[in-house]
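User: My instructor asked us to take a sequence, write out its structure as tokens, and then describe one feature of it. I'm not sure where to start. Here is the sequence I was given:
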Amino acid sequence: MYHHWEAEYIGKGIPDALLPKIRRDLDKVVCSSRFPYRSDDATKVWERLLKAGVAEYSNSENVYRIP
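Assistant: Let's start with the prediction itself. The structure tokens for your sequence are:
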């Protein structure tokens, strides 16, 4: 999720595209880390996936998932 401020990776949507692909290719549920271990940048990615209808969020577990 972290691009290390390298220009070729910033703003390319790589995690947004890669996480759903991992889900499809491996046929496994993909989950985020729980807060406080999940970074703010990772939360932004997961929020975009949630808004796009790709991910879901469990309030009780504080975890995002691509089911």
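For the description part of your assignment, you could build on this observation: The CA atoms of residues 13 and 45 lie 9 Å apart. Try explaining in your own words what that tells you about the chain.
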